[in-house]
Structure formats: structure tokens, C-alpha cells
């Protein structure tokens, strides 16, 4: 500010309106708009702040020394008033220090409440600092300065947050407006957010975690309102971001709204391991381990005669086994397997294996191969010419192109085999005859069975029963629910065989496919319900469950 000269001193005159100073608010100049946190400054040709201001402008700080002159053109050298006002956002609020220095008279208001009154009429300078907690949000500061006839006109006012960690315990407000944009070509995430309102803001901290994870990882601290994350893995996983503000006292805000990005997947699955090969007359059977990658979509099986390349391209396999039924008997083949994820990333090829499909012996293969499921097993049966055979072999697999496994070697005169380890779902079987050298015949015709449940050695456990209604009042239905017994929760049951008997009548033996049992008795009196669980193929459990109840009262 440019001070004006002042050459005379006058008698002290104080305009009053019911007190030492009035707090009359003069009309603001409609032509002057000051952007917060800049003060609007109004000059009055009186000490009561009455009437229309002689001048209105904007002032970035309250720090004036007009000396003995007039503060502005058209104002007197003495007996004038200057008012500064500003409304601003204090963010989360907290402890502030309001400081003022004056010659003559000043009052400081916060939201219309007077907080500081300071008078120096001796020509000396007076100072005062007030420590005050300001609530969060928007608040208005007003400084009213009055000059009489006591020499130089001088005033200075400032406000600032108290940033000592022992004083400031107020967290900043959480940042707002967070956006996260992922660029697939660069595999980077760009974050932007709105600037916080805190005056004691020190900066922002950017956090990231994998979607579904509990712990956050701090990526960076910054004073900007943007951040680019160039460290994202390219695995196709999703990651979550949030931003927190922190102040000069070390207080950290709550997190912003979380934002999620899905990364591009450029990471190949792990290399397939454990590849093995078994030669059978039905083809070369391959098995491998699934590996640690969780995003494998399928596998590619490459195979060709030793020393040559696979000209037809790989076989696509969705399990972890495969039988090459087209390999030439008597020719060594080499194989490798590669894992492929859903977006086409291909793993390094497995270690190769080499195997030779045997030439079938001249003994006649079994015929009329069948597979019949029961609760305890799947019975594989056949007809065979045993003239030149010394034994038989039974093979099984669980997918149409999967690897064959030898599961039994029955005697030559056998015509069936009980597969007590038969799995639920589809299973494929074939049978060979074995010659005197131990070589297999050509495979029999393949047969397939689709089981409702796995083979089990024992029947189902006693079921769990719940009495829903005992037929009360009279002639109402008895209602009971049956559920699989302990250990049978995943067992494929056909249903529950039940019978109700006693003084209430006799239901006879019945079957409930769902476990919901309902029967209306003809008489009143005591009765018992007895229930057995029934396996998928009709085997009844050896243990029952019973409930006793009284019908009709």
C-alpha cells in the first residue's frame, strides 16, 4: 500500500451510536467483487461505518501504514474507518491464531461475533494474538479499523493455522472428486482429484490395493492433485485407489471415494510341469500338472514324430490330460504342452517327453464291452476269445480325449470287472487281451457310462429328521422333512423311504424324492415315523431315523 503524508493532528473525536463504536454494515459496492481469500476493503469518511463507502476495492492482506495522511482520495486525514471482510472455506477447521497490530482502534469479528478489541491512543503500537478454534466449513472474517487524531494510522491483521502436532489434532477433510483412468497402451493409471480447502495442508498420499485385499499400499506423497501410477502389474487383475490428505501437524484424513481400474493382461501363465506320457494301443496318453496360475483357459498340446515339427498345429485341451489316438504305432513321438490364458498369453513350452505307441498284438480284442452303474460300482462286462490270451486289461478315462489309465488286469477267463472307484459323471472304458509276451491287443470298442453319483462301498447314513407338524389339530397333515445324514451332504440320493405307523393309522412304505414328507392320519393317538435314505441307484441305507409324536391334541 502506498502511504499518504499527514501534516496535522486534530482533537480526538469518536462517533458513537449507543457505544464506543457502532457495527453498522454499510452497503457493499455492487461494482466490486473480490475472490476469496482476498478481502473486500471499504473506506468510510466516519468512524461509525455509516452511509455509503467512499471507496471499495480488493486487498490481498490487511497491512497498512498510512502515516499522518488520508488513506485514500476523498477521505479525511482523521476520523475515518476502514473495513475488511472475507468469507472463505476453512476446510476441516481447527486451531487458528488471529494476530493484530494497531495504532488507534481495531475490532476483529468471526461470523459476526467480536473476538478482538484493541485500542492504542497514545501514538504507540499495540499488538494482540488470539488462539481460536474455528469449525469446519465457510466462515466470515471482518476487521474494523478506526482512526481518530492520535498520530499515524497503522493496522495489520493476519490469521493462520496452528500447526504444532501437540495443538492440532483435527484431521483434514477427505479429498473429493477422485477419478482414475487406465490407459491400456501404457499400462498406467492416471488419477486426479479436487484441491483441499485446508490452510495447513501439507500434501496428499496415494494408496493402492488389489481388489478384495484388506491392506493398502502407499504409493506416493505429493503436493499436486494428479498422480500417474506406472507400477501396475499387467496381470489382468483389478486395483483400487484412494487418496488421503495430510496436514503440517501430521494428521491424515479419511480416504477419498475408492476408484477401481482393470489392468491389461500381458502375463503368460506359468510353465506346465510334470508332463508324463504312457503308451497304449489306444494311443499315447499324456498327463501334466495344472500349475500355479489361476487364469489358465486351456492348454495346447504339440506332438510330432521325433525330429519333425507338428505341421497341423496344436490340439486344444481344457483338462490336464490328452490321448493322441492318431500317433502311428511303432513310431517315437515327442510332445510339449503350453498353458494359454483367456486373453491369449501363451506360457513357455513344457519340458518335452518322448513315447512310442505300441503295435497291437495279434490276439483278438474282447467284444461286446458294456458298463452298467450301481451304487457300489460300475460293472464292466465283455466277451472274449481266450485261445491265445494270457490275461485281460481294463482301461478308464473321464473325458472324451483324456489320458487312459490302466485300472485292472483280470484273469483270462473273466467276463466282467467291478469298478468300485468309479467317479460321478462320465467315464469311458475299453478292454484288451494280453498275449504271452505281455503285449496288448488292439483296444476293444469304447463304452461310456454317466453316473449319477460316485461308487460307494456302503449305503447312506441315517437321515436327519425335523418334525414340522404332528397333525394338530386333529385331521391335519403330519409334516416331516428329511435331509442327508452326517457325512452324506454331497451324496447323490434318490430320496427317502418312509413309513408312519401306530394308533394314528398306517401310511405304508412310501418314497419322497425331495425329503418333504406329508401324510394325513385317519385317527388320533401316538405314532412313529421311520425313514431310510436311498442311494441314487436304489440301495437303501442300513440305518434309519425315527420320530415319535402324538396326533390330534
Protein architecture, described:
With about 550 residues, this protein is an all-beta fold. The chain has 5 domains: about 40-160, Galactose-binding domain-like (Jelly Rolls, Sandwich), CATH 2.60.120.260; about 180-260, Sandwich (Immunoglobulin-like); about 275-345, Immunoglobulin-like (Sandwich); about 365-450, Sandwich (Immunoglobulin-like); about 465-550, Immunoglobulins (Immunoglobulin-like, Sandwich). The protein has strands at about 40-45, 55-60, 60-65, 80-90, 95-110, 115-120, 125-135, 140-145, 155-160, 180-185, 190, 200-210, 215-220, 225-230, 240-245, 260, 275-280, 285, 295-305, 315, 320-325, 330-340, 355, 365-375, 380-385, 390-395, 405-410, 415-420, 425-435, 445-450, 465-470, 480-485, 495-500, 505, 510, 515-520, 525-535, 545-550. Strands 1, 2, 3, 4, 5, 6, 7, 8 and 9 form a 9-stranded antiparallel beta sheet that branches. Strands 33, 34, 35, 37 and 38 form a 5-stranded antiparallel beta sheet that branches. Strand 10 and strand 11 form a beta hairpin.
Task: Briefly summarize what is shown.
This protein has 553 residues and is mainly beta. The chain has strands spanning 39-44, 55-59, 62-67, 80-89, 94-110, 113-120, 126-134, 138-147, 153-161, 179-183, 188-192, 201-210, 217-222, 226-229, 238-247, 259-262, 276-280, 283-287, 296-305, 315-317, 321-324, 332-341, 353-356, 367-373, 378-383, 391-397, 405-408, 416-419, 425-434, 447-451, 464-470, 478-483, 493-502, 505-506, 510-512, 516-519, 525-535, 545-551.
Amino acid at each position: 500500500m502506498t502511504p499518504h503524508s499527514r501534516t496535522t493532528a486534530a482533537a480526538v473525536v469518536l462517533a458513537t451510536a449507543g457505544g464506543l463504536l457502532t457495527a453498522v454494515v454499510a452497503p457493499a459496492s455492487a461494482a466490486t467483487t473480490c475472490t476469496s481469500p482476498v478481502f473486500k476493503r471499504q473506506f468510510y469518511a466516519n468512524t461509525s461505518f455509516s452511509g455509503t463507502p467512499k471507496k471499495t476495492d480488493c486487498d490481498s492482506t490487511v497491512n497498512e501504514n498510512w502515516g499522518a495522511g488520508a488513506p485514500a482520495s476523498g477521505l479525511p486525514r482523521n476520523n475515518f474507518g476502514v473495513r475488511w471482510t472475507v468469507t472463505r472455506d476453512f476446510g476441516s477447521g481447527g486451531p487458528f491464531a488471529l494476530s493484530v497490530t494497531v495504532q488507534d482502534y481495531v475490532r476483529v469479528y468471526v461470523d459476526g461475533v467480536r473476538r478482538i478489541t484493541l485500542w492504542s491512543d497514545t501514538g504507540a503500537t499495540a499488538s494482540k494474538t488470539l488462539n481460536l478454534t474455528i469449525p469446519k466449513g465457510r466462515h466470515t472474517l471482518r476487521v474494523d479499523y478506526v482512526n481518530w487524531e492520535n498520530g499515524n494510522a497503522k493496522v495489520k491483521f493476519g490469521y493462520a493455522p496452528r500447526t504444532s502436532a501437540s495443538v492440532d489434532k483435527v484431521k483434514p477433510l477427505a479429498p473429493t472428486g477422485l477419478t482414475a483412468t487406465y490407459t491400456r497402451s501404457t499400462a498406467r493409471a492416471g488419477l486426479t482429484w479436487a484441491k483441499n480447502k485446508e490452510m495447513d495442508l501439507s500434501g496428499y498420499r496415494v494408496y493402492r490395493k488389489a481388489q478384495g485385499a484388506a491392506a493398502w499400499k502407499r504409493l506416493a506423497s505429493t503436493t499436486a492433485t494428479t498422480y500417474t501410477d506406472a507400477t501396475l502389474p499387467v496381470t489382468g487383475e483389478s486395483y483400487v485407489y484412494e487418496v488421503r490428505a495430510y496436514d503440517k501437524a501430521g494428521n491424515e484424513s479419511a480416504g477419498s471415494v475408492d476408484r477401481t481400474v482393470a489392468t491389461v493382461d500381458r502375463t503368460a501363465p506359468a510353465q506346465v510341469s510334470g508332463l508324463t506320457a504312457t503308451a497304449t494301443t489306444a494311443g499315447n496318453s499324456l498327463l501334466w500338472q495344472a500349475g500355479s496360475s489361476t487364469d489358465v483357459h486351456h492348454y495346447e498340446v504339440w506332438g510330432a514324430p521325433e525330429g519333425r515339427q507338428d505341421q497341423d498345429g496344436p490340439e486344444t485341451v481344457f483338462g490336464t490330460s490328452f490321448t493322441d489316438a492318431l500317433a502311428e504305432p511303432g513310431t517315437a513321438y515327442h510332445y510339449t504342452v503350453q498353458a494359454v490364458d483367456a486373453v491369449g498369453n501363451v506360457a513357455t513350452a513344457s519340458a518335452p517327453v518322448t513315447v512310442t505307441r505300441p503295435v497291437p498284438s495279434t490276439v483278438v480284442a474282447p467284444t461286446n464291452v458294456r458298463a452298467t452303474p450301481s451304487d457300489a460300482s460300475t460293472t464292466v462286462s465283455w466277451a472274449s476269445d481266450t485261445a491265445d490270451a494270457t490275461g485281460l486289461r481294463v482301461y478308464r478315462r473321464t473325458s472324451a480325449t483324456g489320458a487312459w489309465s490302466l485300472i485292472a488286469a483280470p484273469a483270462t477267463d473273466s467276463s466282467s470287472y467291478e469298478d468300485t472307484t468309479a467317479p460321478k459323471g462320465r467315464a469311458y472304458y475299453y478292454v484288451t487281451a494280453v498275449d504271452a509276451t505281455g503285449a496288448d491287443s488292439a483296444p476293444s470298442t469304447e463304452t461310456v457310462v454317466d453316473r449319477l453319483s460316485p461308487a460307494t462301498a456302503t449305503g447312506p447314513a441315517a437321515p436327519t429328521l425335523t418334525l414340522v407338524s404332528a397333525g394338530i389339530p386333529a385331521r391335519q397333515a403330519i409334516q416331516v422333512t428329511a435331509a442327508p445324514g452326517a457325512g452324506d451332504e454331497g451324496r447323490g440320493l434318490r430320496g427317502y423311504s418312509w413309513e408312519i405307523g401306530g394308533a394314528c393309522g398306517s401310511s405304508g412304505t412310501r418314497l419322497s424324492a425331495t425329503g418333504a414328507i406329508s401324510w394325513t392320519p385317519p385317527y388320533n393317538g401316538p405314532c412313529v415315523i421311520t425313514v431310510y435314505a436311498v442311494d441314487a441307484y436304489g440301495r437303501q441305507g442300513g440305518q434309519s431315523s425315527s420320530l415319535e409324536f402324538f396326533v390330534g391334541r
